[in-house]
Write a structure and sequence with these properties.
This protein is α/β, with parallel strands linked by helices. The protein contains 7 helices and 7 strands.
């Protein structure tokens, strides 16, 4: 977990930023948050592995795909280990027991932010609902 904390230019510790697919789409469309640029510069932006798959499944030219792959490959990936997926399953079960059904990809993204002790940047309202029931912190939009 120590890898999830870096130091800002002012010397203050800052947490990891996890960016959901919806916020990446807004970012690439020019409507994104400056938090993404800041986290990229500071090396504290982490990529849930499913987000990479979702982004790369969009319609784009081969040149755009290579450029996106280059960007994504520079980011620390999170969520490839089995223990993470065990936590994803427990999170989904816990949420379902409290009346909220979420998809496995959404639970994975939320669990990445929880695992890293970071914040999640998203445009998707499901995560606000998750945050009311789980220790998920959302970044301001």
């Amino acid at each position: 977990m120590a890898d999830s904390i870096s130091t800002s230019t002012s010397g203050c510790p800052v947490s990891a930023l996890v960016v959901d697919t919806s916020s990446w789409i807004a970012y690439f469309a020019g409507d994104g948050s400056p938090l993404v640029d800041e986290a990229l510069e500071e090396g504290r932006l982490h990529m849930p592995v499913v987000v990479a798959g979702e982004l790369l499944s969009g319609r784009m030219t081969e040149a755009e795909r290579r450029e996106l792959e280059d960007l994504l490959s520079d980011l620390p990936a999170h969520g490839g280990e089995p223990e993470h997926w065990f936590r994803v399953g427990r999170l989904r079960a816990s949420l379902r027991a409290r009346g909220l059904s979420v998809s496995t990809p959404d639970a994975h993204v939320a669990q990445c932010a929880i695992d890293l002790g970071g914040t999640l940047l998203t445009e998707d309202g499901i995560f606000a609902r998750i945050a009311r029931l789980a220790p998920l912190r959302l970044a301001p939009r």
